[in-house]
Amino acid sequence: MSKKLLFSLLLSIVFLLPAHADENFSAMNPTVKVTAYKKLYTGRILGIASGSGTVITADGLILTNHHVIFDENEQKPLDAFAVCVTFDVQKEPVCKYTASLVANDKDFDLAILKLDAKDVFGKTLPALKYLDYQNGVAPKEQTQVQVVGYPGSGGETITITKGQISGFDQFNSHTYFKTDTDFDHGSSGGTALDMDGHYIGIPTYIRSYAENVGYFLDLREALPWIREHLMAQASPDGKTGGRLRHELARLETANENRALAYSEYPGFSITLPEDWKFYEVGDEGFYAEQEKQAESVGLSVYFNPYQFEVDKRYMDKLDEELAKLKKEYPDYKKEEAVFAGQKAWKLTYSAYNQRQYAYYIPYGYCLLSLHYAIRLDEEEKQLRVIQPVLDSIELTLPPQTDPKLSRTIAFDDPPFEIAVEGRWRAMKNPGNHPLDLLAEAVREGNFDGFMRWNYRQTPKDERKLSPKDRMDEATKGLEYSDSKLIYKKEDVVADGLTGFLYTYEYEGEKYQEMHKRLTLTLQNGDYEFKIIYDDLSANFDKNLDEVKAILESFRFRGGDETRKGTYDFGPLDYSFSDVQYHRFAGAIGELADKGIVQGYPDGTFRPEKPITRAEALKIILISKNHMEKERGLGKEVNFTRYAAKDAFKFRDVAKRDWSNKFVQYAAEKEILSGYADKTFRPDNPVTTVEALKMMMGVYEIPLWQGETNPWYKKYMEKGYELYLIPRGLEDPNHKLTRGELAYIVNSVYSQAK
Questions:
Q1: What is the pLDDT of residues 452-488, one digit of tens each?
Q2: In contact, 260 and 254? CB cutoff 8 Å
Q3: What single-letter DSSP state applies at residue 641?
Q4: What is the per-residue pLDDT across 374-391, written as a single tens digit (0 to 9) for each?
Q5: Domains in the chain with CATH codes
Q6: Residue 364 in 3-state DSSP?
Q7: 688-698 and 738-752 are packed helices; what angle lies between their axes, rounded to 10 degrees?
Q8: pTM for this structure?
Q9: How many Å is the maximal CA-CA distance in the chain?
Q10: CA atoms of 165 and 139, how far apart (whole Å)
Q11: Side-chain half-sphere exposure of 315, counting CA atoms within 13 A
């Protein structure tokens, strides 16, 4: 079972009654709370930033900060905006209003929103109370000021803080007032007033914590920009705005009725006592808590859908994961229980001054989880508080074992689809986290593996890098861990998109439990797909053909038209069919990726086959040439010109022989001396010391110049010093295999590079 998110499939909520009686807009405060939402690729939305704003016209124009509504990662405005209005300063604001973006300016750090004409229940808004932004007041030093907003440190109600103007400063060529008024990031975009109630400035993100000084923009600086955009049209995202209105409406309705009901699977309802409130309500679950209690009790409920029925095998896997708590909490206890008429697990353990309670309820293909915490010094009292809430919970639909998922996962943004076959099932990300997760697939009965599709903006510092450079950067850390890189390809193609791919093996959480992870990155302009398959090594090997078929089902609407329908991922695993689990597989794979070694036409490498002197020389010379090419200093050798020479150093290497150009070059550079009978003996197996001598000559590795007895002692000692000699090769006359030579060459190459 892969690690699951604590969110559920898209569910609908039952709106029982319209929320709230008529609000008294004549008593509204012009300072409002603004929350900006990001549209995720799955269609869901997530609150990203919040701040304050000021209503400046009767028809609902709101002045706030640019940074409140802007996504710095994506470098574009966020997608939807909720507005909360205060009608009574002693009560929390009413959050059933939405707005659209009119204009924004990073230099000023200003933005203008326009309130939608109707609230989330379809009721038309009347003319609004607003502040005059054109009053022309020119504050001076020591002017008393008050800042109105919704700071994070001020609770849920509107907050007013007082101070004075202590000076002036310039940022981005604009004038800012310095003030000792206490406000934090939640006040950004709010209202700065003088003591006569004149609107004089906008609190901003600029702050000097060392001086305990805050800043707000002189409103007069912004007047030309505001006037320029007063008549501009808002640019709403209808689909995202509709989603936000739906979510705000159900939260308001739930609190109006003190009840929440989900009509789609798993079918869930709850009723709260009078002194409780829903603080978050989503498709994936909710959070409720006692209101205005210093030591309140809260309840979190999540619906976790799976691709298959949550049967005993899933619960056994969950039990393994929960077992970690036993080591951390001595009083950890898990017991069988009944919750809402269903068999459940009840977990308890103490952390700090609280006892943690959790219930896990397998319900068809959904796993429900509930959590609450009780203070140890108030345990009896708080348990009495939470029990009526727990008793009100009902599961209103019968258990369903099959989620009836489509074989094809399709998205409009980004425009792609991918299909799974056989015992695989895929499901769109049922929640909001991770933000870039589009979908996940698992194979029936496999609780250790998963396949995920992610989509994100490529980091700025990587956009200009070649696929090879990005792949090298991504795999660099593997060299310093226990992970073993076993395959990589820098020129992947998938239906019009190009990218890179690498596979590595690592030890899982259990001792000697080996996993493999494949990571495929496909570039789409400034964005990229990242597709991951992770599994136990044995499962990985067994499922590789199925995984490749899933990857080849990728269809993208766009990309390079000349490559549409083309797929080239390579073997995805070891480069050669017969090196898997061989102790030199990593070295062989790295040299193969560079083109330094090749296999046989049948796809094998034959790592245990003895290697000849000529073959060893060629591989060593090509590795050095590859390094010089990477350095870009123009020191690569053109071996072809040595093949044309008529003067032969060795009588057993003919001009027509494939090895001639390498042997001639090595002889001319005095890397080779041959035998006393003027032969090179190219077809003889190469010994350990012969290979080391060639290697040190080609790579110009410094050696002690004195005499040694035997003659090869200095080569062997240098080999040990540089960790070039693999375990078990102590005999200098040992005849090297292809795999052993690959290890030695790769070791020298890595150190020299």
A1: 999 999 998 999 999 989 998 999 888 677 888 888 8
A2: yes
A3: H
A4: 999 999 999 999 999 999
A5: 25-132+228-241 (2.40.10.10), 144-219 (2.40.10.10), 258-395 (3.40.1000.10), 408-568 (3.40.1000.10), 585-752 (no CATH)
A6: coil
A7: 30
A8: 0.79
A9: 110
A10: 8
A11: 21
